[in-house]
Design goal:
With 540 residues, this protein is mostly helical. The chain contains 26 helices and 8 strands. The strands form 3 sheets. It has a 4-stranded mixed sheet, with helices on one face. The chain has a two-stranded antiparallel ribbon with strand order 1-4. It has a two-stranded antiparallel ribbon with strand order 7-8. Helix 1 packs parallel to helix 19 (353-390), helix 10 crosses helix 12 (214-224) and helix 19 crosses helix 21 (407-414). The longest helix is centred in the last third of the chain and has 38 residues, at 353-390.
């Protein structure tokens, strides 16, 4: 078989991911906050982009003419007469006054028609400054010591910085210790404290890294545990509560036994706790009440993260014809425009090839960004409208009527790819008459029907399970098997392990724990009622 060389022509199609296409895909999955940040960066980077709501006030010339071009070239003119234009008469700039020769003293006095002594006071500058300091402030900004005009007034200048837990502990550390070695150990331990105020359980590595003994670390830790807030720098919950109880002078042997057996308290095993602590029912109830009044996370009051307000991207409102009206939240859509006028003006003046190519690329990027933002808004509205159509029962009757839905069903209905629908539904929220939900909330798995009918949504089944558990009586707690039987009686074919998984996902305890909790709560109610009755029946 001979090897030869030859030329062949082949025609094929392939998808090339251009930078503009990758940018459009990226914009689809951004949240409204991330999108606003991205557009702000593009506005700073691209000179041909501008906000759509940026309008020059009446009576002012456009910023482009005065900033980027010469007035003569764009038809601008100045009038020396009072009525020659909409503004005031032309006045020379500061540079012209500074460069002008004012002449001698005699010429200046002749021009002003008076002596310089009548114009400029002979009072020294020091006396003028002293009088200005002694004068009482006449405006609010002078009292505040801030800006002198409304334009420079910044309310954020009066906002105090938040004190973090680390800063609060570091301030106390500088007072508690004077030795550099102890301060180094203390600062290292403070850096290990988490936002809840806890230290890691094992501090052996801290002693090795610092080159100190374990006794030195424990000594510094004992002092740190006396810092404010009470309970900080603890290594576990029991130690945190013990520190707070010592601060309140309530850490007696009975309370110590209770703190050391918090697992029994979590299980509501009051009988075992009463035996371990050696107290009666009234004392154990008072001790448990004191434990509940303590703060298990003392560090959360310092420098907690701010919660960002969730702004919906889509609004769903009832329509006049009984349907649903879907609209985009215009406040979350950035409004940008391409400044074609500025580009046409610059194209006439630019002579270098490098500058021309730069502004040409800027024009293409700006045009593509505007189109990508418009396409993003249309895609979100299309996907949201289809979700509302598919989940009409949820909006009308509630969670129990939520239908099983997947990405493919929506993608086929709007003739888009599943990946596009997945990106659109990421980090997007919908405000409805039943609350605000993420778009992915409406996509749930399906659970088969027991009678072979229409499948049920997993979220609707969770809602049904929660309703059954909330309505159970303390004397008849529903086990997972009983819940399975009742669901199958309602036409839902579900396994016991699925019920247990849904129950644990909703943070609902087991039937044994719920029985103990409800019986304990019922006992507390009965004891309170009996004590009130005994007080009422006592003779006056």
């Amino acid at each position: 078989m001979a090897l030869t060389q030859r030329l062949e022509f082949r025609q094929s199609q392939s998808l090339v991911m251009t930078p503009q296409l990758m940018q459009a895909i990226k914009l689809l999955q951004l949240s409204n906050l991330d999108l606003t940040t991205f557009v702000e960066e593009e506005l700073e980077r691209n000179p041909l982009l501008e906000r759509a709501n940026d309008e020059a006030p009446a009576g002012e010339a456009p910023a482009e003419a005065g900033q980027y071009g010469d007035n003569d070239d764009f038809g601008g003119s100045h009038s020396d007469e009072p009525g020659g234009g909409p503004g005031e008469a032309f006045e020379p700039g500061q540079e012209e006054w500074m460069s002008k020769d004012l002449g001698t003293r005699a010429e200046i006095e002749q021009t002003l028609d008076t002596g310089l002594d009548n114009v400029f006071s002979e009072e020294p500058a020091e006396a003028a400054a002293r009088n200005a300091q002694d004068a009482a402030p006449t405006t609010y900004t002078e009292w505040g010591g801030g800006a002198s005009g409304d334009e420079d007034y910044n309310l954020e200048a009066f906002v105090a910085a938040e004190t973090t837990l680390g800063d609060h502990l570091a301030e106390q550390l500088s007072v508690a210790f004077t030795g550099p070695a102890q301060r180094m150990i203390g600062q290292y331990l403070i850096d290990l404290v988490d936002e809840a105020g806890y230290l890691p359980g094992d501090l052996g590595q801290a002693a090795e890294r610092l080159g100190a003994t374990q006794a030195d670390v424990e000594g510094v830790l004992a002092v740190l545990q006396k810092f404010d807030p009470p309970g900080v720098c603890a290594r576990n919950l029991s130690e945190c509560l013990a520190i707070q109880l010592r601060e309140l002078d309530r850490y007696d042997p009975a309370m110590q036994a209770l703190v050391e057996h918090l697992d029994l308290l979590a299980k509501r095993d009051i009988v075992a706790l009463r035996k371990i602590c050696g107290v009666d029912d009234e004392d154990i109830a008072d001790m448990i009440g004191e434990i509940r009044r303590l703060n298990p996370k003392p560090g959360m009051k310092f420098g907690s993260a701010r919660l960002q307000t969730m702004v919906p991207d889509v609004y769903v409102r009832p329509g006049p014809d009984g349907g649903w009206h879907v609209e985009l939240n215009s406040d979350t859509l950035p409004r940008v425009l391409v400044n074609q006028t500025y580009y046409s003006q610059l194209s006439k003046k630019i002579g270098k090839d490098g500058d021309k190519s730069y502004f040409t690329d800027a024009l293409q990027n700006a045009t593509w960004l505007v189109r990508a933002l418009d396409q993003r808004a249309r895609t979100i509205l299309k996907v949201a409208t289809e979700i509302v159509r598919q989940q009409d029962g949820f909006f009308t009757h509630g969670v129990a009527h939520l239908r099983p839905l997947n990405l493919k069903a929506v993608a086929d209905a709007i003739q888009m790819h599943e990946s596009t629908v997945s990106r659109v539904t990421a980090n997007k929220y919908m405000a409805t008459n039943r609350g605000t939900f993420e778009l992915k909330y409406f996509f749930t798995a399906s659970i088969a029907s027991a009678d072979g009918g229409e499948a049920h949504s997993a979220e609707a089944v969770r809602h049904h399970i929660k309703q059954l558990i909330d309505s159970e009586e303390p004397a008849a707690i529903l086990s997972d098997d009983t819940i399975v039987e009742r669901l199958r009686a309602s036409g839902i074919d579900i396994a016991r392990r699925t019920v247990a998984k849904y129950r644990e996902a909703m943070r609902i305890p087991s039937s044994v724990q719920r029985r103990r909790d409800k019986q304990s709560a019922l006992g507390n109610v009965l004891s309170t009622a009996l004590s009130d009755r005994s007080r009422n029946t006592e003779p006056a």
